[in-house]
Amino acid sequence: MAATSDEAGQGAGQAAAGQAQAAGRPRPSQRRVAQWMRDYARLPGIPDEYIGSEGPRAVWTRFFDAFAALSPAEIERRFGAADRHLREAGVTYHAPGEAAERLWPLSHLPLLIDEADWLQLSAGIVQRAELLELVLRDLYGEGRLIADGAIPAAAIAGSAEYLRPVCGVKPPGGRYLSLYAADVGRGPDGRWWVLSDRTQAPSGAGYALENRLVLSRAFASLYKSMNVERLAPFFEAFRDSLRASADRDEPRIGVLTPGSFSETYFEHATLARYLGFLLVEGDDLAVSGDRVHIRTVAGLKRLDVLLRRVDSNSLDPLELDASSHLGVPGLIDVLRKSGVVVANMPGSGVLEARALLGFLPSLCRRLLGEDLKMPHIATWWCGQKAAREEVLSRLDDFAIEGAYGRTVPGFASHGPVLASELSPSEREQLKAAIRDRGIDYAGQELVRLSTMPVWDHGRLAPRPFVLRVFAAATPDGWIMMPGGFCRIAEQLDARAVSMGDGARAADVWVVSDKEVSTRTLLPASDTVRIRRIAGVLPSRAADNLFWLGRYLERAEATLRLVRALGTHQRDAGEGAPGALQVAERIQRLLVAWGAASQNARMQPAKVAAEALQAEERFGSGLNLVRAAQRTATSLRERLSPDAWQVITEMAERLANEIEDDDGVISAAELTLQELASFAGLAQENMNRAAGWRFLEMGRRAERAINTTRFARQFAYDEASDEDLDTLLTLVDCQITYRSRYLLAPVLAPVRDLAVLDPYNPRSVAFQVQALNEHIASLPALKETGLIERPQRLAVALQSTLTTAEAASLDTKTLFGLEQDLLSLADAIGSHYFPHGPNASRPEKLTGLA
Amino acid sequence: MIYDIRHVTTYAYESAVSFARCTLRLEPLSGHGQRLMSHHVEIRPRPIERTMRRDFFGTLTESVVIEAPHRHLRIDSRSRVEVARKAPGRAVESPAWERIRDIAFGANSLGPASPIGYVFASPLVPVLTPITAYAAASFPPGGGILLGAVDFMHRIRTQFRYDAKATAISTPLKEVFENRHGVCQDFAHVMIAGLRGLGLPAAYVSGYLRTIPPPGQPRLEGADATHAWVSLWCGEALGWIGLDPTNDLLVENDHIMIAIGRDFSDVSPVDGIIVGSPKQKLNVAVDVLLVE
User: Fold this and answer.
1) What pLDDT band is residue B222 in, cutting at 50, 70 and 90?
2) Are residues A441 and A421 in the same domain?
3) Which chain A residue's Cα is nearest to B20?
4) DSSP notation for B235-258
5) Are A636 and A603 within one domain?
6) What pLDDT, in 10s, does the model give residues A157-180?
7) What pLDDT is recorded for position B221?
8) Facing B271 at nearest CB: one of A148, A318, A436
9) Which of A529, A535, A717, A834 lies at 20 to 30 Å from A568 by C-alpha?
10) Is there a single domain that holds both residue A479 and residue A570?
11) Cβ–Cβ of A843/B280 closer than 8 Å?
12) What percent of chain A has a predicted confidence (pLDDT) above 70?
């Protein structure tokens, strides 16, 4: 292997691979590596990860030699598999300002870092994390660094993240930073440089996890052979550390997310699921006494630790941004009383200000007694005279940044301003602003970052990248995530400063010379208390599960009608008056359910097509499945990837254009099969905890309502044979009926089978019985001992259905039954989800003028 | 001078409110030429929890939780305050404004009295180029800071129209400035924005103003209002000086201070959240009585 890589390496190193003096004919894989290297056009004057000044680096050579063993077709197949996995798992992000989720674009080649290089990088990051923690402790505590002039007050006071309400508040759990991230890049000197610090609520760790999952699956044996450090131990340690920060054993921990509109919502769900935390939004939480509680279907439950992905200023409308709806009123006061751990501590984002960077070297000497191990991008804060004059005198050599935030005061664009690209008047404006209010500006050196290979249609091409690395505080000190979140720029000439929004992501492999440990760090069995019920169910999740069940069931009923209408039209040749009536009745139902438009009536084929997939009909199969998909989005952390995949496939199929009437029937049929497979997944794979019960209750309630409606429409007092036959089809009871009665459909037996028969899993009675069982097994909220409303309604309904006789079940009774079922569904909603979408939210008191 | 102040805030809700969590900043401060003699707040319905602390700015802040269902909330605050301060003359000599700016930028404290806390944008007061340019007309190079500030205040008083209906708390400052109208709070915010744009440390003050009825007419009960003005740091010697742009006055003995902050959001007298009623009606009645 060494021989192979040397040959290939020298060939490319000289950029004249043709002269490779191979003994004998090179194998195809060697030829491929040689070809890739010949095509790999490094940028002049820019360091590259793959090929250094002395030729290809060993770790990359090892990788490409193994990679080239795969045929070009196989490589494309593996890349395709990776993309498919990303799509099916729904790995997405929201681009700011866009409503739709986008697929997370993954570059298929990982960034490789060898162990020695990584150790050096780690040492620098860990030191920095330690230093920043000490700086925060002083800033929000004693304030000696400011008093002594080690940090100018202005470098802190200008940051919107310097939170006065938390000054003097000791962080519960003992630390400000639990998770620290830094964006780093390799500078022209070959060293790693810090480009910016992330101390607020760093994102990317969850995506790194997902990227790893995808790539390690697509290239399983390559991954194994490369001795790549595993990510799991890092996350385990992080989780244990958050657990240890709480003031009781077995604490309840939540990931606080802004909600499913957040650009990184997928990641929040990933982290919650992976770490075993609850995914919560501000509305799910309430302050009561000295504690934060989560609203669950069993009432308020104490929450001990919040891993926040909501920015500090939005955390508490009472003490911070009053217009925020993302936070928890009273949260800061609970922090004051040490009643909850928030990671990272609100206010820690103050350290992201560029104004501070220049002071870190001396702070490091002062606080840690050593020099900074890792340089950061040279920054001149214009709040100080010497730096200001330096920047003004060489304006074109700098990227001008806001000293505290992403915007440059006075300039509309996000991100840095380059003086060389300004008009003469703008340039004068910038100079005047820096002279007058220099404290608001910083100049940063323009650095061109190193490049790494990406796969570009069968060739390798260099691209600049930024690497985000993560460190977690543990009781034994800081530990690094061996890997990271790498963003690759599409532009070749990207400067360090304009790399904020990378176009693609890549997995990061820290490669060891030795075999890596694959132990999972599972806790020893004697320290774990055995439990069979998994945690608490937040009201919002219960609400979403309930509606997921309802939407899917309603989609099923609608598609059954579509199928019945379609097959009816296809097979209608006889022209019997009864048949016409049946078609008319199906259409009437579809119109009443909002699945088809009134003016499509009398054109059954059009009604069927609309009901299947019309975008503009809220009740169409497509829109119901999409509603289910949206609801499922908020339940990501609770659904298995398989279940999510089934929903995605249904939505995709129904959105496809369909050519003819047969296409409508077959699309309805295929979707019905998928609905059945979702139901099967839920039945076979979901733990029988409260979550499953709410999904089931939604499904049962909706099915009971729809079956009653079917019965009213097709088993009315003067129903024809065709009507009754249709009902048996819609409720899937043809076979049962025929095996039981051996005769053509007759009103009373059909009604009995569809409505009253408790042994028929599609009858109304069966659904009501199931609802009763679920309600009875859920916790009672009030302690008055009185029967609660959902149960009262369900018990009453069940006794009505148990004692009713088919002969007396007329249209009017059916209508009454339908109303009772609707009330029951509402009662479940208002009882268990009082804070659901329709509930009253906290309002701000009007202020005075 | 000694004042008795009664400040009654009432909220009427359309439907029953089941929960309220409020923050009250109603206790007049001691210092800056005034002394609090007594203070008492009565709240109906009675809160289940009342806790007090001093916030970052030194304001007494009371956190209140009400769990009794209610349709009316009444917060009755009574204070007795002695005021004895002397305003500098409008034309008194003061340091050049650029010098104050440079001293402020170089401050080495983050404390509530440090000027550095008041030269940056704050939640309700952005630093906007047009307002800075507007303010700059009052500050020629090398001009005295107080002279400039008094001129700036005078221009706001004469060029802006007082209109109680034109703005709400949520009206952005940019709009207030473009339309040249608003209430005391808006005028204070505009003046603060202009001063900060020039790098001058300007704070927001909430408080009361004694109103003197026209000659021969009785003083109307509850006719007074809460008021807001600006406090500008004019260097170590002069310290913080109160300027009232609504009345074009340097603050003296008719003004009673409740709290100082960066803008209204730091000092809002009654703030909070309620659960249960989206519709609410607020009424504020203030009486400022001169005792002696």
Assistant:
1) low
2) yes
3) A842
4) -TTT-EEEEETTTTEE--TTEEEE
5) yes
6) 999 999 999 999 999 999 999 999
7) 60
8) A318
9) A717
10) no
11) yes
12) 89
Residues A564 and A640 in one domain: yes
Q: What does each C-alpha distance from B190 to A93, A268, A328, A433, B131 come to in angstroms?
A: 40, 41, 31, 20, 7
Instruction: Collect all residues of chain A within an 8 Å Cβ-Cβ radius of residue B207.
Output: none
**Cα–Cα distance between B151 and B137 in angstroms, integer?**
9
Instruction: Report the distance separating Cα A245 and Cα A535, nearest Å.
Output: 19
Query: Chain A contacts of B185, Cβ < 8 Å?
Result: 849
Residues A771 and A648 in one domain: no
DSSP sequence for A550-578: HHHHHHHHHHHHHHHHHHHHHH--S--HH
Is the minimum CB–CB distance between B120 and chain A shorter than 8 Å? yes
Residues A177 and A268 in one domain: yes
Q: Do the bridges between strand B2-17 and strand B280-290 make them parallel or antiparallel, or are there none, so unpaired?
A: antiparallel
- How many whole angstroms separate alpha carbon A472 and alpha carbon A119? 16
Chain segment B100-128, per-residue pLDDT in tens? 999 999 999 999 999 999 999 999 999 99
Burial class (CB in 10 A: 0-12, 13-18, 19+), A436: middle
Domain boundary among A647, A676, A705: A676
Is the dihedral angle over the CA atoms A223, A228, A233, A239 positive or is it negative? negative
Residues A288 and A274 in one domain: yes
Query: Could you tell me the CATH number of the domain that includes residue A426?
Result: 3.30.1490.270
Nearest to A849 among B11, B168, B198 (CB): B168
Range of the domain at A424: 380-445
Cα Dmax for chain A:
100
pLDDT tens-place string over residues B69-93: 899 999 999 999 999 999 888 888 9
For residue A835, the chain B residue with the least C-alpha distance is: B275
Residue A410 to residue B129, Cβ atoms within 8 A: yes
Q: What is the arithmetic mean of pLDDT over A280-295? A: 91
Nearest chain A Cα distance for residue B211, angstroms: 17
- Whether A494 maps to a domain, the answer reads yes
* Residue A529 within a domain: no
DSSP B116: G
Strand B70-83 relative to strand B2-17: parallel, antiparallel, unpaired? antiparallel
Q: Do A849 and B183 touch (CB under 8 A)?
A: yes
In angstroms, the CA A51 to CA A472 distance is 32
Structure tokens at A728: 């048996």
Interfacial residues of A (vs B; Cβ cutoff 8 Å): 139, 143, 146-149, 152-154, 156-158, 160, 162, 164-165, 167, 287, 317-319, 321-322, 329-330, 333, 336, 383, 409-410, 436-439, 840-849
In this prediction the ipTM stands at 0.94
Average pLDDT of A743-747? 87
A19 has pLDDT over 80: no
> Of A645, A676, A707, which residue constitutes the final position of a domain?
A676
Q: How many of the other CB atoms lie within 10 Å of CB of A734?
A: 14
Residues, chain A? 849
Q: How many domains does chain A have?
A: 4
Whether residues A484 and A399 share a domain: the answer is no
* DSSP symbol at A679: H
Nearest residue, CB atoms, A156 vs list B110, B271, B277: B110
Q: What is the pLDDT of residue A184?
A: 95
**Å between A543 CA and nearest CA of chain B:** 20
